[in-house]
Specification:
Blueprint lengths: L8 E5 L11 H19 L4 H15 L18 E7 L4 E8 L5 H11 L4 E3 H10 L8 H4 L17 E9 L5 E10 L17 E3 L3 E7 L1 H7 L1 H10 L4 H14 L4 E7 L4 E5 L6 E5 L5 E3 L3
Parallel strand pairs: 3-4
Antiparallel strand pairs: 1-5, 1-11, 2-3, 2-6, 5-6, 7-8, 8-9, 9-10, 11-12
The structure holds aspartic acid (ASP).
Length: 294
């Protein structure tokens, strides 16, 4: 399916949990430099899969978002992380859910994709896989985890507050990929899993489209999530309409959400019906755009 076309496109999000009136300048600056770095990688021919993993790993590492280092403990008092990654041309996919004790769940998810015959490993099984494959562990949770930008200490126990990071890319070979990682909703029960690690729900990539979702996972799962957008788009529905139809369904179920997508012809969309969504995008035809509320 792949053919060299010289087009590339990239979008990322730092979650649909942005709260109106708060200052996300540092987040937007971070998204800007990260997007510029990913644009340069794509321009020199890097694969979409490597670029989305790089972007999500950096957002996990930063502690600025509710993912990786910015995650908060569940009601049992420890951090469990969810992440997934998908490669469009091969439909290869990997994911981890309720993973405790590791710095970069997206890297472990890629390991599941490449080193096992499975798509999703959860809890203690995901932990055992990550440990035996040497992924970086969190040695001292009390000092490692920090409060992300735009979140208060009180909100870290509030189940209505949440955040996620995600990236989608089209590379110059025509390959699409998507990756998403989250600390989940604040105040979640031990073992709670949202849309993020579920292929087809929080993350999807095929030959035509790559998608990463953010919002309350319970609503996204029940609204059909990313693959419902992909199916509509591939049946001829306009990209923005396909995304908005899923977002409307999330709203009808009582939630709100955000979606980023890139397509094989390098169209991009970053849409949401929450108060805001931290996001950025760039392509070989479109200059870098970064914003949270507009
Ligand atoms: N979708 C994530 C979850 O439900 C949270 C988010 O995107 O903000 O775990």
């Amino acid at each position: 399916m792949s053919q060299f076309n010289e087009n590339y496109a990239f979008a990322l999000h730092g979650g649909a949990g942005a709260v109106a009136g708060r200052n996300y300048d540092s987040v937007e600056e971070h998204l800007r430099s990260l997007t510029e770095g990913c644009r340069a990688l794509l321009a020199k021919g890097c694969s979409a899969l490597d670029v989305v993993e790089t972007a999500v790993t950096e957002m996990e590492r930063s502690g600025m978002y509710v993912a990786g280092r910015g995650s908060a403990p569940n009601t049992a008092g420890y951090v469990e992380l969810d992440a997934s990654i998908m490669h469009g041309p091969s439909r290869a996919a990997g994911a981890v859910a309720a993973l405790p004790g590791f710095e970069s769940p997206i890297q472990v998810a890629r390991g599941v994709m490449e080193e096992t015959p499975h798509v999703l490993l959860v809890g203690s099984g995901a932990e055992a896989f990550a440990r035996s494959n040497g992924y970086a562990t969190v040695e001292d949770p009390a000092s490692y985890y920090i409060i992300p930008v735009g979140v208060t200490k009180e909100e870290q126990t509030d189940s209505n507050a949440h955040g996620t990071v995600g990236a989608v890319a089209l590379d110059q070979s025509g390959a699409l990929a998507a990756a998403t990682s989250t600390g989940g909703t604040f105040g979640k029960l031990e073992g709670r899993v949202g849309d993020t690690p579920l292929i087809g729900s929080g993350t999807w990539a095929d030959d035509e489209i790559a998608i990463s979702c953010t919002g309350i996972g319970e609503h996204i799962i029940r609204a059909g999530g990313a693959v419902s957008i992909a199916c509509a788009f591939k049946s001829g529905v306009e990209l923005e309409t396909a995304i908005n139809d899923m977002l409307i369904e999330v709203k009808r179920l009582g939630g709100d959400a955000g979606v980023i997508a890139v397509t094989r012809n390098s169209s991009m969309a970053t849409l949401y019906n929450s108060a805001g969504m931290k996001r950025a995008s760039v392509s070989n035809q479109q200059p870098l755009q970064v914003t949270t509320f507009k």
